[in-house]
Amino acid sequence: QVQLVESGGGLVQPGGSLRLSCAASGSIFSIYAMGWYRQAPGKQRELVAQITTAGSTSVADSVKGRFTISRDNAKNTVYLQMNSLKPEDTAVYYCKAELTDIVGNVLHNYWGQGTQVTVSS
Fold first, then answer.
1. What is the DSSP secondary-structure string of 21-52?
2. How far is it, in rounded angstroms, from Cα 112 to Cα 121?
3. Quick check: 100 and 34 in contact, CB under 8 A?
4. Eight-state DSSP code of residue 9
5. Mean of the pLDDT values across residues 62-89?
6. What is the distance between the alpha carbons of residues 44 and 2, in angstroms, rounded to a whole number?
7. What integer pLDDT is reported at residue 102 of this predicted model?
Protein backbone atom coordinates (compact mmCIF):
# COMPACT_ATOMS: atom_id res chain seq x y z
CA GLN A 1 0.00 0.00 0.00
CA VAL A 2 1.24 3.45 -0.99
CA GLN A 3 -0.49 6.68 -0.14
CA LEU A 4 0.16 9.88 -2.08
CA VAL A 5 -0.78 13.36 -0.89
CA GLU A 6 -0.48 16.25 -3.32
CA SER A 7 -0.35 19.98 -2.71
CA GLY A 8 0.70 23.22 -4.37
CA GLY A 9 -1.89 23.79 -7.06
CA GLY A 10 -3.62 27.09 -7.59
CA LEU A 11 -4.23 30.04 -9.87
CA VAL A 12 -1.28 31.77 -11.51
CA GLN A 13 -0.82 34.31 -14.29
CA PRO A 14 0.88 33.39 -17.57
CA GLY A 15 4.63 33.45 -17.11
CA GLY A 16 4.33 32.66 -13.43
CA SER A 17 5.54 29.69 -11.43
CA LEU A 18 4.16 27.00 -9.14
CA ARG A 19 5.70 24.08 -7.30
CA LEU A 20 3.67 20.93 -6.79
CA SER A 21 4.51 18.48 -4.02
CA CYS A 22 3.68 14.79 -3.66
CA ALA A 23 4.40 13.13 -0.32
CA ALA A 24 4.48 9.32 -0.30
CA SER A 25 3.88 7.04 2.65
CA GLY A 26 3.36 3.33 3.25
CA SER A 27 5.37 0.76 1.29
CA ILE A 28 7.50 3.43 -0.34
CA PHE A 29 10.45 1.10 -0.95
CA SER A 30 8.34 -0.86 -3.43
CA ILE A 31 8.18 2.15 -5.75
CA TYR A 32 10.19 2.03 -8.98
CA ALA A 33 9.26 5.44 -10.34
CA MET A 34 7.12 8.45 -9.56
CA GLY A 35 5.70 10.89 -12.01
CA TRP A 36 3.37 13.74 -12.66
CA TYR A 37 0.45 13.49 -15.08
CA ARG A 38 -2.09 16.06 -16.09
CA GLN A 39 -5.56 15.99 -17.56
CA ALA A 40 -7.42 18.91 -19.08
CA PRO A 41 -11.19 18.83 -19.70
CA GLY A 42 -12.02 16.69 -22.72
CA LYS A 43 -8.45 15.42 -23.08
CA GLN A 44 -6.58 12.23 -22.24
CA ARG A 45 -4.39 12.12 -19.20
CA GLU A 46 -0.79 12.67 -20.25
CA LEU A 47 2.60 12.12 -18.69
CA VAL A 48 4.36 15.35 -17.78
CA ALA A 49 7.52 14.18 -16.00
CA GLN A 50 8.93 11.12 -14.26
CA ILE A 51 11.76 10.29 -11.90
CA THR A 52 13.02 6.79 -11.06
CA THR A 53 14.46 5.46 -7.82
CA ALA A 54 17.88 5.72 -9.46
CA GLY A 55 17.32 9.42 -10.08
CA SER A 56 16.79 9.34 -13.84
CA THR A 57 14.36 11.98 -15.06
CA SER A 58 12.29 12.55 -18.15
CA VAL A 59 10.09 15.45 -19.16
CA ALA A 60 7.46 15.72 -21.87
CA ASP A 61 8.38 17.76 -24.93
CA SER A 62 5.50 20.16 -24.27
CA VAL A 63 7.03 21.30 -20.98
CA LYS A 64 10.72 20.74 -21.64
CA GLY A 65 12.80 23.68 -20.51
CA ARG A 66 10.02 24.95 -18.25
CA PHE A 67 9.20 22.11 -15.84
CA THR A 68 11.61 20.22 -13.59
CA ILE A 69 10.93 17.09 -11.54
CA SER A 70 12.96 16.45 -8.40
CA ARG A 71 12.85 14.51 -5.16
CA ASP A 72 13.68 14.80 -1.48
CA ASN A 73 14.37 11.30 -0.22
CA ALA A 74 14.48 12.37 3.43
CA LYS A 75 10.92 13.67 3.14
CA ASN A 76 9.70 10.96 0.72
CA THR A 77 8.48 13.76 -1.50
CA VAL A 78 8.56 14.42 -5.24
CA TYR A 79 8.24 17.93 -6.64
CA LEU A 80 7.26 19.44 -9.94
CA GLN A 81 8.67 22.93 -10.41
CA MET A 82 6.67 24.70 -13.10
CA ASN A 83 8.07 27.91 -14.58
CA SER A 84 6.99 30.11 -17.48
CA LEU A 85 3.48 28.75 -17.20
CA LYS A 86 1.14 29.00 -20.17
CA PRO A 87 -2.66 28.85 -20.36
CA GLU A 88 -2.37 25.46 -22.08
CA ASP A 89 -0.77 24.11 -18.90
CA THR A 90 -4.15 24.42 -17.18
CA ALA A 91 -5.19 20.97 -15.98
CA VAL A 92 -5.63 18.73 -12.98
CA TYR A 93 -2.21 17.41 -12.06
CA TYR A 94 -1.88 13.92 -10.59
CA CYS A 95 1.03 12.25 -8.83
CA LYS A 96 1.64 8.58 -9.64
CA ALA A 97 3.80 5.93 -8.00
CA GLU A 98 4.68 2.89 -10.13
CA LEU A 99 5.54 -0.61 -8.97
CA THR A 100 7.18 -3.01 -11.46
CA ASP A 101 8.53 -6.55 -11.53
CA ILE A 102 12.14 -7.42 -12.25
CA VAL A 103 11.71 -7.25 -16.04
CA GLY A 104 9.81 -3.98 -16.02
CA ASN A 105 6.17 -5.06 -16.17
CA VAL A 106 3.92 -2.70 -14.24
CA LEU A 107 2.43 -4.39 -11.20
CA HIS A 108 0.42 -1.51 -9.81
CA ASN A 109 0.00 2.24 -10.01
CA TYR A 110 -0.92 4.42 -7.06
CA TRP A 111 -2.47 7.81 -7.71
CA GLY A 112 -2.82 10.98 -5.73
CA GLN A 113 -6.09 12.87 -5.49
CA GLY A 114 -5.11 15.50 -8.05
CA THR A 115 -4.53 19.22 -7.69
CA GLN A 116 -5.91 21.93 -9.96
CA VAL A 117 -3.52 24.23 -11.79
CA THR A 118 -5.09 27.18 -13.59
CA VAL A 119 -3.02 29.57 -15.69
CA SER A 120 -5.00 32.67 -16.57
CA SER A 121 -4.69 36.44 -16.65
1. EEEEEESGGG--EEEEEEE-TTS--EEEEEEE
2. 28
3. no
4. -
5. 95
6. 24
7. 80
